[in-house]
Amino acid sequence: MRPWLSNILASLSPLGLALGFAFFAASLTPSLMPRSFIVQGALSGVSAGVGYLFGVVIAWLWNYMELPAPRTGRFLRVVVWVVGVAVAIGFLWQAAGWQNSIRELWHMDPVESAEPYKLAGIAAVVFFIAVLVGRVFRLTCLAISGWLARFVPRRVSNVIGGLIAIALFWSVVDGVLLRAAMHVADSSFQKVDALLEPDVPVPAESGRTGSPASLVTWDGLGRQGRNFVASGPTASDIGKFWNATAKDPIRVYVGLNNAETIEQRASLALEEMKRQGAFDRSLLVIIVPTGTGWVDPAAMDPFEYLHRGDVASVALQYSYLTSWLSLLVEPEYGAESAKALFHEVYGYWTKLPHDKRPKLYLHGLSLGSLNSQLSADLFDIVADPYQGALWSGPPFESAMWRSVTAGRDPQSPAWLPRFRDGSVIRFTNQNNELDIPGAVWGPIRMVYLQYASDAVTFFDAHSFYREPEWMRVPRGPDVSPSFRWFPALTMLQLLVDMATATTSPMGYGHVYAPEHYIDAWIAVTEPKIEPGQVTELKRHFRDLQADSDSHD
Questions:
Q1: CA distance 164 to 159
Q2: DSSP 8-state secondary structure symbol assigned to residue 206
Q3: Segments forming the whole domain that contains residue 58
Q4: Spatial distance between the Cα atoms of 530 and 521, rounded to a whole number of angstroms
Q5: Which of 109, 107, 111 is nearest to 40 (CA)?
Q6: Does 207 lie in the same domain as 183?
Q7: Which helix (DSSP H) or strand (DSSP E) does residue 17 occupy?
Q8: How confident is the model over 185-240, as pLDDT tens digits?
């Protein structure tokens, strides 16, 4: 072994190493999402670093309180390394089985190996980088406190030096690194959003958003907006399925580059809606898109089929960033845009004759769900309410969702709450849970579609020190029974799960399936449809998805 490496290993805290090995081993246990060896290696390395930090802090506190210190000789270090490596190998041996406990529930092919050598190598690199950063922080503390010790008592200088070092490091992370990363991410997503795809031509029909006759320019729509207005089923597609006449659904979208301010974009959206005759349709949906401006076709396509195309929808872009990134940095980003659009549309809608205006609904997925819930104040609409809402994958920061979940019937699980008498709000998942015995819908119908395996919904910062309620038995149908709570570690696992939640197969994690939207839309909007037709429509969308997957 090289002398410099030997010196580094010898300088490591025995207690820190013990907890580092324990955290590494526990990080291999399953959480909500299956993980590749790359993701698992990075998570395990960070986890080992956090465990090591805890050990170092505990040892420091012990010495600081001048308690009798146990001997930390060579023998103890060898024991820690031998036992730690043995435990790590034992857990690595079981890692593939733990990942398969999720994959089996999700009907995914099992993995034969967790690639233990590659995983451990990545974890080791990440761990030593974390230790290096920790030592730079310690040297900073010592330098500052050493200088302060010339003016104030030693222990006071230690405390003040530590606080200054924390503030210094946090300002570097938050003020320099994080802001630079956000700037790069925003610029990158903005460039992607501006790309003109050759396979998405400018609509020729004058009734389409972005057409030459439209008030909204095609270039300003952005990538997600162009895909939204140019895709979706046509009257011919819908009519062919039902073997009856149908209408072309109306899709209105306004991108960030279509107008300077939020108010101008919302006003432009209303004028485009009026131009296309959106208020002459039977149903109208105000959509709040995800952070990138994306509108989930798995939600809107089935809705348009269910109502034979006699529908209109409108969406306003408010960001380029992915939802999970926006959620961590600025969770209410986009609320102002959602409120502006609702104000414009609702204000015009309330002036129309009640018997001649469309039924009005709200919809949002992920960050769009959070902002859609913030778009309307109940006291402003109670005299003339909209008809309902479908919110899918509501993020953990959703205040309304949290309040309803906390106020659920205590006999119902946190991942599938039953709220009061079920007349206003109901929850559902992969299984249609919306038909509650004895419950009768009121004038407003709100449905939350959420999967128990969705970390965007069920991330919980309090899992740092307590087990989340949704982990208790009975668990959701798509959550591994081997998932165990560990202090601090579970929060790290859920953070990684949230960042990778959109990589799951459809119908799990943060990827919502059309057939589950179908059940939810039926409950919210009451289309005229027979049970056999529901089955056929679900089969139709499964076939479309299978065909799409075969061409990818």
A1: 9
A2: T
A3: 3-190
A4: 14
A5: 111
A6: no
A7: helix 14-27
A8: 554 444 444 444 556 788 889 899 999 999 999 989 988 999 999 999 999 999 99
